[in-house]
Amino acid sequence: MTRLSAAILANAPTGVAVPNYDRTKVTAGIVHLGIGAFHRAHMAVYVDDLLKDNPDWAIVGASLRRPDTKEALEPQDGLYTVAVRDASGTHPRIIGSILKVLDANTQREELLSLMASPAIRIVSLTVTEKGYCHDPATGELDQRHPDIVHDLANPTEPHSAPGMIVEALARRKAAGIAPFAVMSCDNLPSNGATVKRIVTKFASLRDAALGEWVAEVAFPGTMVDRIVPSTTDADRTTIADLTGVDDAWPIMTEPFTQWVIEDDFPQGRPPFEKAGAQLVKDVEPFERMKLRMLNGSHSTMAYLGYLSGYEYISDVMADENFVTLIHDLMTEEAMPTLDMPGVDLGAYRDQLLNRFRNPALQHRTWQIAMDGSQKLPQRLLGTIRNRLNADQPFDRLALGVAGWMRYVMGIDENGDEIDVRDPLAMRMLAIAADAGDDAEELYIGLAGLTEVFGTDLAENQAFGEAVATHLDSLLEIGVKEAVAEVVAA
Ligand code: CS2
User: Mean pLDDT throughout 167-182?
Assistant: First the structure.
């Protein structure tokens, strides 16, 4: 079968949308760090929509860890398929907005000099929560993080995202070139302000004057939303059968997409609004809504669903007790903490429940369960803090946190090992091994991870009682029964 490449665009298979611009005429205005599936299904699609009239805003992507995306896309001239899936079918489109992919480990110098060049006016990121090398509970740079230690000692050969950004900015400062805007598209709370704090701190540790300069750089905040499961070999076959073209790394996603952006781009930006993005002054209420409603539900379903034997989110949604749990978690516990004038939160919730049900999206609970220590603070714990302060119940949220604690024990209800992927996995597994099946001990050990819970929650009695009680029932009666009890209460 023919491999996807620029050569096939002129005779694209019927039913497959292709770029509506001449790719040989577009130039890069954006460097994107962390060129994973999410970026390729989200921002790269918005940019693809805009390149016809805004040809100097194409993307050069960089992978900071593994070169696998580069290896897949290079023989394809950067092209790949995005397939939108729902009950009506699979709708493929070829995206051309990524001109090339650089591997930061082997092409560091090329990447840094591109980032330092005046044509690049935006550096955007999807490096996942852990890619910022910060303490998730406080949002501060983790100065003991091995990559940060390395990058402070070797600032011109950085490994971390903060290190890369600061080195590129330092080169621009030295050359008298205005800074690019730094746009995080990760699910961090207040992502613009948080990343600004982390990057500015790193810069000031390098050099005080650089720190002051970086403090003036724009870090627009964003709320990003599109569900993008990891691609499987079965997906590759589906796309090949559908298009007649071999794509080494197609992306499967849902019809829904949302992007809310704080409009702060001193060196200009593509007219993202023409591709459907919302440009706003203050993005934080949107972020909080999405993190607490969508992601808070997702993480709760991921831990409790995985432990119940459900492989996909759509399987979780076929269990009525889970539907009730998630509906009530959002309605009774998350929605009252949100202040969103003009947004119908009930409609937003119902739309989320429908998106979770999408039978054509195979979104694994295990995928969402990853990196929980980095996700819990903004997805569940902030909501719980608000509920505690208002003296309001937070039973379902506490069950979600207990589900995470049960999951990171690393053994499921059949006694099989769980592949726990998390930067704190080793510590958590050690805590679980010490605790055995003593729920109280397990709670105390895990709640003592202050980078997750802060000192406030770790010492909060109401929080401890609620979570430890649920953890006990998860261990005693099993996850499905414990969910049923909470739903019936
Ligand atoms: C998910 C998110 O993997 C996860 O943790 O909750 O990636 C989620 O699918 C996206 O935030 C949806 O926009």
Answer: 98
Whether 226 lines ligand 1, by a CB cut-off of 6 Å, is yes
Predicted local distance difference test score (pLDDT) of residue 15: 85
Domains and CATH numbers, the chain: 6-280 (3.40.50.720), 284-488 (1.10.1040.10)
Q: How would residue 203 be classed by pLDDT, with cut points 50, 70 and 90?
A: very high
Ligand 1 pocket member 368 (CB < 6 A):
yes
Q: Indicate the top mutation candidate among 39, 42, 227, 407 to test ligand 1's pocket, ranked by most ligand atoms within 8 A of CB.
A: 227
Q: Output the CA 300–ligand 1 centroid distance in Å.
A: 12
- What separation in Å is there between the alpha carbon of 65 and the centre of ligand 1? 20
Give me ligand 1 centre to Cα 224, in Å: 9
The whole model's pTM is what?
0.97
DSSP collapsed to 3 states, the chain: CCECCHHHHHHCCCCCECCCCCHHHCCEEEEEECCCHHHHHCHHHHHHHHCCCCCCCEEEEEECCCCHHHHHHHHHCCCEEEEEEECCEEEEEEECCEEEEEECCCCHHHHHHHHCCCCCCEEEECCCHHHHCEECCCCEECCCCHHHHHHHHCCCCCCCHHHHHHHHHHHHHHHCCCCCEEEECCCCCCHHHHHHHHHHHHHHHHCHHHHHHHCCCCCCCEEEECCCCCCCHHHHHHHHHHHCCECCCCEEECCCCEEEEECCCCCCCCCHHHHCCEEECCCHHHHHHHHHHHHHHHHHHHHHHHHCCCCEHHHHCCCHHHHHHHHHHHHHHHHHHCCCCCCCHHHHHHHHHHHHHCCCCCCEHHHHHCCHHHHHHHHHHHHHHHHHHCCCCCHHHHHHHHHHHHHCCCECCCCCECCCCCCCHHHHHHHHHHHCCCHHHHHHHHHCCHHHHHHHHHCCHHHHHHHHHHHHHHHHHCHHHHHHHHHHC
Distance 293 CA to ligand 1 centre (A): 11
Q: What's the CA-to-centroid distance between 296 and ligand 1, angstroms?
A: 10
Confidence band for 85, pLDDT divided at 50, 70 and 90: very high
Nearest CA to ligand 1 atom 5: 368
